[in-house]
Amino acid sequence: MADKFLDKVYGIKTAQDAQEVYDEWSATYDDEVAENGYATPARCAAVLAEHLNPPTQPILDFGCGTGLSGTALAALGFTTIDGIDLSAGMLETAKKRNVYRNLMHVPADAPIPVAPGDYAAIAAVGVITTGAAPAALLDSLLALLVPGGFIVFSFNDHALEDPTYEARVKTNLDAGVARQVSRTYGDHLPGIDIKSAVYLLEKI
After folding, report:
1. Contacts of 7 by beta carbon, 8 Å cutoff, 6+ apart
2. What angle do CA 123, 99, 94 make, to 5 degrees?
3. CA 142 to chain centre
4. What is the C-alpha separation between 83 and 104, in angstroms, rounded?
5. 86-98 as b/e, with b when 16 or more CB fall inside 10 Å?
6. The model scores a pTM over 0.85
7. Over the chain (204 residues), what is each successive 10-residue block's mean pLDDT?
8. Residue 81 pairs with which residues in a beta bridge?
9. Residue 96 Cα to chain centre, angstroms
10. I need a labelling partner for 184 at 20 to 30 A (CA). Which of 4, 44, 170, 202 fits?
11. Terminus-to-terminus CA distance in the chain, angstroms?
């Protein structure tokens, strides 16, 4: 029987630990999240599709994992998607989906190899949360956008229970870094009764 990871991934403390766990999880990740009804990739893609036109503009799928988020974006007509992840194992699966223009392996704590304005939008689906990336990652991703660029991201219930996550959104909004286009709360992993808030911000 394959190991289950959803019950322990939210307790990860360091980026290095995350890299090791996600490498180990890569072989069974898709099956485990699918059996729990993973809904957030499709929700994020749908929100972005309402606002980003034309769909040929480049999108960075940050923390793309096995490519579920890229697949959701491609299903809605986006054609220029690059993926980046800290797990080489996850990226091997993502490559097989044939929805990415480029895939980049960036180890834990390494600089993000992207310049401001390279992408019209960034997706960080299920990435900024306990057991994955800290709230401060939002600042780094917003810095990679130029005015008019979008970022779509999600906070699951675990992140929402930690006030630092939504506080980071408020700090950027109050500072005039971005404006909030939408925030919707809905299914994330209904099989284990976890929901998520999906945000769309536009860089000012």
Report:
1. none
2. 80
3. 13
4. 6
5. bbebbbebbeebe
6. yes
7. 52 60 70 92 98 98 96 98 94 96 92 96 93 89 98 96 96 98 97 96 98
8. 59
9. 19
10. 4
11. 49
